[in-house]
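To the wet lab folks,

You asked to see what we're planning to order before we commit. Fair enough. Below is the target structure as tokens, and below that is the sequence we designed to fit it. If anything looks off to you, flag it before the synthesis order goes out.
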């Protein structure tokens, strides 16, 4: 049974990811909800989730939520596509008294609203692509949509190393996207591409240069932030205090590397002193 969580409007929103990619979601939350207190947990000891089994990801995700609950949070945002695909329903069932939101449903909804041709592409990690989470979510919303997905796990390394632009980066992106773009070219009408990994927005400009102006990119971070705002508003949990919200960071390994790599994803400078090393494995999952 989940621990009882006492919620109040000034409690923090807990955000977790396997590492640093979820900081793109934190950016969007910070912009959309500037008065909210935010606690970010990066499970850097076990990154990447994209190569792990569903059982392992569900266990990791539950440990992350339990660790965040110890910080008296009022909501959870799964800022990881793999964890959203594999653990969202489990977490929502395990913690019925706290809003738990993922990034896939908001991204799928944004893609469906944006497309005119109903031909949508998705790029993600291997596990998210194999799980078909975006494909299923899009078809559920738009049954006559055509959805093609391509695994682009190499983009994660590019993003984390700060290789975000330039001729070489665009050549790598073009090579990785070639199967998707050639398949999309058969109909000539793919007009929407979902960035199905929270690392990928860091490469957004380079990806846009490769796919061209006729294909619009969907960043699920922005739509997720809007969904969080709506959900908290309906629950009467929006923080309406005037001061800017606080930020806290938890990592399970390598806080120094986290601070260094975070500069590639987060719009604000993260002070080393604000990053706490925690062991979440003792938060046993049920």
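Sequence we intend to order:
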């Amino acid at each position: 049974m989940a621990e009882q969580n006492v919620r109040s409007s000034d409690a923090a929103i807990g955000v977790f990811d396997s590492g640093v990619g979820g900081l793109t979601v934190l950016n969007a939350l910070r912009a959309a909800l500037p008065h909210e207190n935010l606690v970010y947990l990066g499970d850097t000891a076990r990154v990447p989730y994209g190569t792990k089994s569903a059982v392992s990801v569900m266990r990791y995700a539950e440990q992350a939520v339990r660790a965040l609950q110890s910080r008296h949070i009022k909501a959870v945002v799964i800022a990881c596509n793999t964890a959203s695909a594999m653990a969202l329903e489990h977490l929502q069932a395990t913690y019925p008294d706290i809003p738990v939101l993922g990034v896939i449903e908001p991204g799928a909804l944004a893609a469906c609203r944006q497309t005119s041709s109903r031909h949508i592409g998705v790029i993600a990690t291997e596990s998210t692509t194999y799980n078909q989470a975006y494909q299923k979510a899009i078809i559920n919303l738009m049954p006559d949509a055509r959805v093609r997905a391509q695994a682009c796990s190499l983009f994660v390394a590019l993003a984390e190393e700060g290789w975000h632009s330039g001729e070489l980066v665009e050549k790598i992106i073009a090579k990785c996207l070639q199967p998707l773009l050639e398949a999309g070219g058969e109909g000539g009408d793919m007009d929407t591409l979902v960035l199905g990994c929270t690392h990928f927005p860091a490469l957004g400009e380079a990806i846009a240069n490769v796919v061209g102006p006729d294909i619009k990119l969907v960043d699920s971070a922005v739509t997720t932030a809007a969904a969080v705002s709506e959900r908290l508003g309906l629950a009467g949990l929006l923080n309406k205090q005037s001061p800017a919200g606080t930020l806290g960071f938890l990592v399970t390994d390598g806080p120094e590397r986290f601070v260094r790599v975070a500069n590639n994803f987060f719009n604000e400078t993260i002070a080393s002193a604000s990053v706490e090393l925690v062991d979440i494995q003792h938060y046993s999952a049920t």
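Structural context that might help your review: DSSP finds eleven helices and ten strands in the chain. Residues 167-185 form the longest helix (19 residues).

Thanks,
Computational group
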